[in-house]
Amino acid sequence: MRLTFRGHDDRYAVEQSLLAFFPEERPVYEGEDGPRHGEVTLHEGAVYATGVTSLTYDGKTARASARVSLAGAADEYERERLRQRALKLSFFRAARDITGVTPSWGALTGIRPAKLVRTMLEEGYTPARADRELRDVYCVSPARRRLALESAEAGLKAKRELRPEDISLYIGIPFCPTRCAYCSFVSASVEKSFHLMTPYLEALTAEVEAAGRMVKETGLRIKSFYMGGGTPTTLSAGQMDALLTAVNKAFDLSGCAEYCIEAGRPDTIDREKLQVLLDHGADRISVNPQSLEPRVLRAIGRQHSPEDIEKAMTLATSMGFPHVNMDLIAGLPADTPEGFRRTLDRCLTFGADNITVHTLSLKKGSRILLEGLPIPTAEEVAEMLDYADPALRARGFAPYYLYRQKYMSGSFENTGWCRPGYTGLYNIYMMEELHTILSLGGGGMNKINLPEEKLARYHNPKIPQDYISRIDTILQQKDEIFSILRGLREQNP
Q: Which of 9, 76, 249, 365 is geometrically suited to a Cys-Cys bond with 184, CB 3.0 to 4.6 A?
């Protein structure tokens, strides 16, 4: 779809709405060949920002506008958010008029719907008023409004329990046994990169030790610890033991409310590794089957069976892990609504207290896109998610965090579900951006919470080879990060 902008160049705001209505389309801009399909204009005055969208698609034409008050915007950052809202709403209304369709999330774009609702509640909105805002302004469906409100309330509860000195610690292990068909994450398969394991862990240990010293010097407290990837349990028991020994030596984890390790692939789990995790204080693991359908596992390139998943869960629960999460994905190649139902129903028998239901995100560089693998339709994905919600609620689960991604099937969402008292805190802290996330290892994203809800982001290199070769630069970057954190602590002791 070829688009022309007038009075702005806010591609992101418009593209998110475009994908919700026209998932097969990709935006094309001025200067590129092809007929013009849409014009999106921003008019800004002293009091109002007005978005106007004209669309022509599939022989139909529509024009719509949206006016948003700029009064009360505290700064330019807030004014920009309001301008974006005007643009999004105008495009949404024009696209809805053309297609006759209202997406489940309506005009609400961005990856953090619960954060928006949490902000409303903090500003004094009642849940009923926040619900009306989602309904009347953004045209969000009843089911998605409920998800957003419940997740926002969980986020608000988690925020109230934080202290000014609290941060979370993340460590990334960018290695996997194989690369799944849906994945574009830069993780190196063990077969091709085993020789990088030792130098990677040496570099990571150096970063752990440096960051540990800085955390102690600044008087910060680790509230949650999360090791992800990749697949951390790709490491041998000995390698994991050495790494976690370094972590526990470098950081005081006595005030840590959650110590989580992704043990995602069942073909990397054994008793020895799980015992290492328990010995070092891990109280939460995540076993991620994604599906229990044999043909789906084959289609996505997994080398384990559904029985392997059941064995891994039986082992984990028998060894006494207090909390176990399982990840599923709705919309995988070769899956069907019936297959997804079988997967979820079986997972509900394994004793997990957390189940995260993702929606397939069509990521650039994934084998699904590169090879054109057939996937379920948006309608079939909707059927999967519509089954999951009541099925999980009937077993005592409630949503506690959610987020959305670009190019998701049906423009749906990822939702974390848990039984009462089993909330995954790191997931809330990260997705709701409640406090600073200190990230170590390949692919880590440091998110430093600044005053007025602003963020400073610092990225570690994603590719293991780059991480290893640039470790000195990474350590220098950590000095910069801790200079900021030290200043924030002095302002808010």
A: 365
- Provide CATH code, domain 1-101: 3.30.160.100
Quick check: 105 and 411 in contact, CB under 8 A?
A: yes
Q: Which two tokens stand for residue 97?
A: 């008029």
How far is it, in rounded angstroms, from Cα 278 to Cα 410? 39
CA dist., res. 168 & res. 453, Å (int):
17
Say whether pLDDT at 369 is over 90. Answer: no
Length of the chain: 493
Given a contact cutoff of 8 angstroms between Cβ atoms, the answer to whether 120 and 149 are in contact is: no
Using 50, 70 and 90 to split pLDDT, how confident is the model at 436? very high
Residue-wise pLDDT tens digits, 20-70: 898 888 888 866 555 568 999 999 999 999 999 999 998 999 999 999 999
Looking at residue 334, its amino acid is: A
Report the C-alpha gap between 55 and 300 in whole angstroms. Answer: 38
Angle at 406 between CA 121 and CA 354, to 5 degrees: 60
Please calculate the CA angle 251-161-127 and round it to the nearest 5 degrees: 145
Quick: pLDDT tens for 171-205: 999 998 888 888 876 555 555 677 899 999 999 99
Topology of domain 161-480, CATH: pyruvate-formate lyase- activating enzyme (3.80.30)
Mean pLDDT (whole number) for 229-243: 95
Q: How far is residue 262's CA from residue 443's CA, in Å, rounded to a whole number?
A: 15
What per-residue string of b and e applies to 221-233 under the rule 16 or more CB within 10 Å gives b?
Answer: bbbbbbbbbbbbb
What torsion do the CA atoms of 178, 181, 185, 188 make, to the nearest 10 degrees?
20
233 neighbors 271 (Cβ within 8 angstroms):
no
- DSSP letters, 270-298, are -HHHHHHHHHTT--EEEEEEE---HHHHH
How big is the CA angle at 309 (ends 307 and 315), to the nearest 5 degrees? 105
Strands 166-173 and 221-229: parallel
Calpha distance 109→161 (Å, rounded)? 28
What distance in Å separates the CA atoms of residue 117 and residue 121, rounded to the nearest whole number? 6
pLDDT band at 371 (very low <50, low <70, confident <90, very high): confident
pLDDT above 90 coverage of the chain, percent: 79
Mean pLDDT throughout 473-488? Answer: 94
